[in-house]
Design goal:
Blueprint lengths: L2 H13 L2 H8 L3 H15 L4 E3 L4 E3 L1 H29 L3 E8 L3 H5 L2 H8 L3 E8 L1 H9 L5 E4 L10 E9 L1 E6 L19 E5 L3 H13 L6 E5 L5 H8 L3 E4 L11 E6 L6 E8 L6 H7 L11
Parallel strand pairs: 3-4, 3-5, 8-9
Antiparallel strand pairs: 1-2, 5-12, 6-12, 7-10, 7-11
Helix pairs in contact: 1-2, 1-3, 1-4, 2-3
Length: 298
């Protein structure tokens, strides 16, 4: 069976339509249909059901797609490895970044990696934690910058922690604690903790960090978005906890950021990727990180 036929089935499974699949593959529709027929005859089973509107994969077809995806990935990685031996590391690395800490997380590491491996094409996207995580699940990116936490399906993920910081609290400049050099969690017991309505993953890793200290907020409120947290603080008199030094520009006169000194309270950042992703640029990129993050942890 030709490898090209396996790839063609992948495209057909994506579009569920012979015409659109053939267009993407630069094939005629009859040629694509013939290739699928040949696969079915060789395998001795029906892979697709055809009707006037779309193509549906049979149960065997669905299993075949899963198996062929793995085979193609292994083959492509092997070819890439051979090419690397001849010409040096090359390929594509897709990285998802938290939009509000891009410079802090990748400002030095990414330009250096691009300089050292000019044949690797690096593509980046930015977003909030749940957007980055979903892009990993959907295989739209290879690596994502995320705080490690017990996310849905985290058992299929790997986390490479590159930074650990303490915690700080954002509160209004006229808050009774605003002039303190530092505070403890105990001093925040009766405060209203502001969580994020559209970002449940940030709420998850913050709550997990608090749980390590056996602390559960008594009262909570919600901000629509991370960028509206200062406004919600001023409106409700609540507080927001995040990693040390985290702040949102434009509210320097109205908002104070104060360190929290409580044993066991910290936040981590990690590069996250799917265990099944065998992209050879991932381990090379991770191996280049230590020198760039030596001064990140604090």
């Amino acid at each position: 069976m030709k490898l090209e036929y396996l790839r063609e089935l992948m495209v057909l499974a994506k579009h569920k339509n012979y015409t659109r699949a053939a267009e993407e593959l630069y094939l005629t529709q009859p040629a694509l249909s013939k290739h699928i027929d040949l696969m079915e005859k060789e395998l001795g089973t029906c892979l697709v059901r055809r009707n006037t509107h779309q193509v549906e994969l049979t149960e065997d077809g669905q299993e075949a797609v899963k198996a062929f995806q793995k085979m193609i990935r292994l083959y492509d990685n092997y070819v890439s490895d051979l090419e690397q031996k001849r010409t040096g590391l090359q390929g594509m690395l897709r990285i998802g970044m938290l939009y509000y800490t891009i410079q802090q997380d990748l400002g030095k590491a990414l330009p250096a990696f691009r300089k050292q491996y000019p044949k690797v094409t690096v593509q980046t996207i930015s977003g909030q934690p749940q957007e980055i995580y979903q892009a990993l699940i959907d295989e739209k990116i290879d690596l994502g910058v995320l705080p490690p936490a017990n996310y849905p399906h985290s058992d299929i993920m790997m986390f490479h922690v590159f930074a650990r910081t303490g915690a700080s609290v954002m509160l209004a400049a006229d808050h009774p604690l605003s002039e303190k050099e530092f505070v403890t969690l105990e001093e925040l017991t009766d405060e209203t903790f502001i969580l994020l309505k559209d970002d449940p993953y940030t709420t998850l890793f913050i709550n997990e960090a608090l749980a390590r200290c056996s602390f559960t907020p008594k009262k909570t409120a919600e901000a629509d978005h991370i960028d509206t947290v200062p406004f919600t603080i001023l409106e409700t008199g609540g507080i927001h906890i995040n990693g040390s030094g985290f702040t949102i520009p434009g509210y320097e006169d109205e908002i104070r950021v104060i360190p929290i000194q409580t044993d066991g309270l910290y936040f981590e950042k990690a590069f996250c990727w799917c265990k099944a992703n065998q992209n050879p640029t991932i381990p090379v990129f991770l191996q280049s990180l230590p020198s760039f993050y030596a001064n990140y942890n604090h």
